[in-house]
Amino acid sequence: MNSDPVPGILSSFECKQENLLPILHAVQEVLGHIPSDRVEVIARALNISRAEVHGVITFYHHFRSTPIAQRHLQICKAEACQSMGANDLFDHALRRCGSKSDAQGASVALDAVYCLGLCAMSPALMMDGTPHGRVTTDALDKLLDLGR
Ligand code: FES
To answer: In the record, which residues are listed under signal peptide (predicted)?
Structure first.
């Protein structure tokens, strides 16, 4: 059995450039990301350059070139949270997680976001979709340790 789903996905679309977006969506839906070694295959099938495929992948934030991390940490760096130490919190998270969200194989994807609607509870963050307010570095450490 062939474990690469990309040829099957390509065969389900007419091979024309207009189908690049739906093909990329289909590949990401199946694989969770668009591996760099599949870009060449997609480009060849659509008779376009690798640079064109890569350009579309990097233009749309939805598309990922690396696998999604197991956990997702979003720290608000908007004004209210910044005034309550969000930048220090973010730097602390970066030291703990060791990478931002595009890092390959990261177990925690870390992203800066700009207002979670929790301004009255600054600094705020979202861990795996759950909001947390008035977060200290100790509280963040506990959240990160829970996922281990
Ligand atoms: S500014 Fe951080 S939640 Fe609004």
So the answer is: none
